[in-house]
Request: fold
Amino acid sequence: MKKWNLVIDVAKCFNCNCCTLACHDEYGGNEFPGYAAEMPKLGHRWIDIEQRETGRRPMVEVSYLPVMCNHCDNPPCLEAAKDGAVVKRADGIVLIVPEKAVGQRQIVDACPYGAVFWNDEKQLPQAWPFDAHLLDAGWTRTRGSQVCPTQAMRTLHVTDEEMTRLAQTEVLEVRSPERGTQPRVYYRHLDRLRSVFIGGALSGVLAGILECIAEARIRLMHGGKALAEKRSDTFGEFRFSGLAPDSGAYTLHIEVAGFREKLIEVQLHRDSVCLDAIELEAAGAPPAAVTAHEPTTA
Amino acid sequence: MAIAEVKFSALLFGLSGVLRLMGSRHPRFARRLAGRNLTAQMRTADYAVARHFTFQDGRVRSGRGLHAAPDITVTVANAELGLKLFRLRPDHLERVEAMKNFQLQAEGPDDLVVWFTQTLNMIPTLFWKYGTDLGNGVTRYVSNTNGGPVFVHVKNGRILRITPIEFDTSDAPSWSIEARGRRFVPPRQTTVAPHTMCAKSTIYSTGRLLYPMKRVDFDPNGERNCGNRGISGYERISWDEALNIVASEIKRVKRDFGPGAIMGTHGSHHTWGNIGYYISAAYRFFNAIGTTKVVHNPDSWEGWYWGAMHHYGYSMRLGQVETYGLVEDLLKEAEMVVFWSADPETTSGSYAAFEGTSRRQWLRELGIEVVHIDPYYNHTAALLGGKWIAPRPGTDAAMAMAIAHVWISEGLYDKKFVAERCVGFELWRDYLLGNQDGVPKTPEWQEAETGVPAREVRALARRWGSSKTYLGAGGWGNGHGGACRSATGIQWARALACLMAMQGMGRPGVNYGLLQWGTPIDLNFSFPGYSDGGMSGDVEGTAIALSLYLRMPQLPTFNPPTQKVPRLRIPEAILEGHAEGYPWDGKTIEGQFQKFTYPKTGHAPVQMLYKYGGASIGTMTDTNRYVKAYRTDKLPFVVNQSIWFEGEAKFADILLPACSSFERWDISEFGGTGGYALHGQTQMNHRVVLMQHKCIEPLGESKSDFQIFTELASRLGLGTYFCEGMSELDWVKRMFDASDLPKHITWKKFLKKGYYVVPVPAENRRHPPALRWFYEGRKKDVPEPHPLPGDYTEQYLEGLQTQSGKFEFECSSLKRFDPDDPERPPIVKYLPSWEGCHSPLHGRYPLQLISPHSRFSYHTMSDGKESAINEIREHRVLVNGYYYWVIRINAQDAAERAIALNDLVLVHNERGAIVCAARVTERLPRGVVHSYSSSAVYDPMGDPGYSVDRGGCVNQLTPKRSIAKQVMGTAANSCLVQVVRWDGSSGQWSASVAATEMEAAS
Reply:
């Protein structure tokens, strides 16, 4: 049978927060018996957006991660709930039944994603119910999907088999798969939230003037193997993205006509490395030793 | 008896029957009829026909002939006219003419006349139905906001939810553009901005003003205690008491002081709609009572208006060029887009929500190179990627000149265009080469100013000069916001205009834009924009004479006093009794040269402020000034008409609670601005004209602005003149009839469904690209009725608005005005910012603060007041139970100050001090801090105007100084501050200490 899934493209999220505001709009001042009690006016973020910044000027990357109840197929909250306060519907949606969940704070504690909020006034655990009351009434998209200006958030009503296939073809991931919770909220480009990059800007003297060096060939070496190859752009810049933090030593191998070949060793720690002033030496100048780079910022 | 007299007599007789019948059938009408007890008489001037109607406790009686003592009498010149004017669908031109020529007159108390005529006009509306039944007691209405149009689901009289509009199959198809082998189609729905998506939370906010209020220690007949404004509390009073006080104050100050004693002013864009908005109902009211006008500066245009305009004209666009057809041209031709001080993903094209966002995604798909020049790694850059260049704030003009220097040195410009379509290039070229001052404006020269490596500027210049490049300047692409609002804003806009001339603006792939303006929609369909004047009748102060008056005849209005106060000088006008400024007048290039002063000869000093909306403290510059101006006896009376109790509303003597636009009728178009932003609808993917349904009843005792103005005007005998005896809904219908809508959709259907999507023209009927005609030396062929015919130098429709008709590197208008003005010489030259890295104060206040428009709120709309956006961590941060405004600071600058993420910091200079929450980031270079302007919350921790504010009004810190001496513009982005960890005290900053510091430094 067809079940509900959410697919979020991290590369398209730009933190406009329309999905979080639509969630406030839907549950603020409203209650939907059987689905959700009213959300407190302030203080709850049933849909939230985390952000992450990496790199430093002039190369910065900012990524945003919309997070919400994952509607897990193996939901820890269900395990923790008593008296049927949490239900897993046949269409995949997990509901905290407001009429039954009063006082069950353990439901909040059970969620490994911190997606369940405690309503102090109502003594009630609350989470984003996948707008199930709307889908049940014939809506085909969640409020967040509908309002997203970049179409970063897609509501999919497909069979599990089809979803598995989509996850493979679109390279989708879920958050913390190692917990075995089996979320129904999938992410594209989730890598942007954890990977780092090695970037740089090449310059060199041409006709007596320091210029950006475009069209240089830069190879990234790691563990004796060439990982990737890039050409420097108009501004002499290049960037190798998608690297693992703390992944050790890399070597940049830079070649461009008219300049000496250059090797730079880079130690990748927690954050990205941006070498914004790599000056190439003119061909014919005495050879220089391999430059080692230690990032100045942690 | 003549036949007409028989007929008119019969019509009046019939009317009495209709009144009774409608009263028995429609409970709403029965309630209306029960609203007043009076006898109204209608007669012809010669008494040939007369009938009276007596309304008593909801019952209607009528009799033929004259009544002995009618409360009101409506007189029509003769029976023929009576038949015309009182038919079911009267011709408004005939009605207006009859009123103007004293052929239709009313006697008796004005409020009764308004009630009687509005009641008669109500009859046809009783059959109208609106909204779509969604089942389960839910009705879907439609509304429009400055952040996009919306569906409003209402249940039991309460708003359930607000969503964007998803088009259905009966709505007109969308356009598509084929470019480089791909076909691009926009999404079949509208988008909404965050400040609209949170609307429900602010409508039902406890921050709403729900009742008329009076400051507790304000006594209009005794002690006024003006110094206590902002300190004393308020007590609830009745509408009658509130309106009577305001009406008697209006009369008093006019009687005791003379014309100009009332100053009327509005904030910018706090709601939306062609009828109930400020350039409509409010202007009509202010003109009707006679006010000293507050002259806004062109605050989104500044550098383009005061600067770039002199090079190419476009005064009717306030110095920004035309943008027709540019989405298609860019997608088909451009190889690079340079975003310069442009963050459309934050500024939303002002009223265009996220309509341009989906289009800019296509840049990536087409592999078009992008460059972002902005001290802040802004949201557009973060989304699209590309090269980020971060000049020091206020130095961009130096970089632009260095780009021109490279082009000249390496021959990378359109020499034919410069020779044939431009004048004065040689003079500017010589300046750039250093032939005038010995300083060549090289990339190395600019590096010292901007901090941007010379090699990067050279690389940019070469790439730009050798490939088809769009310049996306400011949020609209052809200017708007950002760097134009700084001490060097004029230079920046001028230099950019010169760059575009050097590249041959109008050449395929070479133009202004960033896919924000210029979609291929139908511009021949007429629906007026908000600045086309609505019901204002204001033929002098709006675009009504050009765009609407012929279609929607109405009683014209004029403001008798001609005294003006610059909006940025309201405090000086009040406190010092003197102010001067230069006007925002786009009719001609020379409009801006006409200096004015306050007080104006023969006029009264301002004694009363009628404030509509509440935004000054959060939106103007050096805004502790405004607080001080409120707290003085020099301003004896302040009335504020506001939806929320916030900002300067807390400084009023009388508060009139206005309802939100969701609680009243209106009609408008998505982003339909008109006026100086003509055809701004091309920012939208679809032209959508909207009914703004009255979705819910006004909350509490709040009333629509139209209603408040009507009731106040009635107390001055001006009610009938103000509303022409019609309700808001009647005016909405008039606006519908005045547009092209009736040619395409019936009123019945439009009213019910609530919106209409204007069909797109066929691909071969699209408007040609902007400026192509100029590039190719042809007659102007875009649908732009500017400049004024008399502003063409030679042949009509040939050439630009400048004296030469060409692009002028050396501006003849500036030569005529003041060739020796060092701040605005005839060719653009670089002059460092008066508040920047070279300023003496830089040592004491070493951080440059840029304060662009907020991403999540709109001016003060949607901030504070329990708005859901308070939860957005980029907007406000909850620390110890208080939602603090956010300031962004470079990581190293923060580390040196021991500031970590979400630490509370004191941001201060000699003008003020505010507490913010810090966001530590690499998105800013060292020495620059970034915090949005427009906090709605002003929350002084001590004496208002003199103490630390924790509400986040960064506008307290920005300079009041005008961009240049001979203009009146805001330079808010030229601002030096210091940031330190906040010790939690309110005594960490005091105005007197700061003033001493300033003296020591200067």
